[in-house]
Amino acid sequence: MKIRSVILRVLIFVITVSSCSINISQPSGITTSPPVVTVPSAVPASALPEGSITQQSPNTIPSLPTTTLPVTWAELNLSGKLVYTSAVFQGQSILMDIRSLDLITGVVTTIFQTSDRGLIDSVAVSPDSKQLLLSYAPPISLGFGGPRALYTMSLDGSKAPQLLFTPASPDDEYFQPEWSPDGKYVYFTDLNNQSYITDVWRMPYPDGEPEKLADHATWPRVSGDGTRLVYVWINSDTGVNRLVLANTDGTDGRKVSLKGVSITIIDAPMFSADNQSIIFSSPVGLKASAPNWIDKLLGVQVVHANGSLLSDWWSVPATGGKVKRLTNILSSALFGTFSPDRKHIASYSTNGIFVMKPDGTEVTMVVHDVGGIPGTVSWVP
Prior knowledge:
The chain has 381 residues and is mainly beta.
């Protein structure tokens, strides 16, 4: 049983408890309504030998119940669906979901649910809106779950997740999956549990050879026009984070200068609708630090937010320059995605999912309960 796997599960519990006292407050006002929560039944999963990763059976998954949220955001005229991660609690068990919210009807459908001790770290929807790419740790018979790897499954949830490729070693875990806009590549972050270093990789989809693009890096995101890559580079000596802009193959990388405000911790960058700016999450008034030997022993990384720090959305020109604060919400685990028409951003947080204008105004809550844990959201037509 890996110590870091235990820490991950404990972190889920701690964030869940602590986030109950955190409220998103925005000067422009947030539209709210009482949450509607449905706890679906667990999906059975076969136990795996401890520490192993195997491709799951392609058997059809039993259908899961749906629920309906009041469409309090109707005046925004939103369309499409939000696909997001969530967690539910059944006694002492934590079950993690992939859900879909129809923004017109308010119907929430559970696409997939782990059994106890399974972990879904993050999910990305393919450009054709047919496939899911997920960072998934299957449940195992002993301990707190297996290592995270990349899996695929259909968006309709008709079959269980299938292992995309075997990790390079038992010490490698993969997360933060990202598709290229043409669907020909998948990008991801590799965490090595021996060196405690994260690197950015990509792989030709569906069966190419993975290649490393950047050392000491995390959070890869590709521009909407498919021409550039942004990621977060981590100074292993100081813990300071820097935005890096590069070609999609990782070449010609250069740091993006941030002026006007001191920012040393950066999470979840993404390109603006016109690809001319970079939007990113960062806490206010906190400095990064390199992990000490105790952190390394426990597998705890403190060089970036990891979803546990109260943060806001910021933007900076892709060429570098003055940083602009977009929101004043102070929420944790922010992760954003644009609507298909590029007129809104959906933002995941441990408090729930909200939508806003690209300039950070008109913040409106649409999902009030995601279980209080870090996750991701995608917006599909």
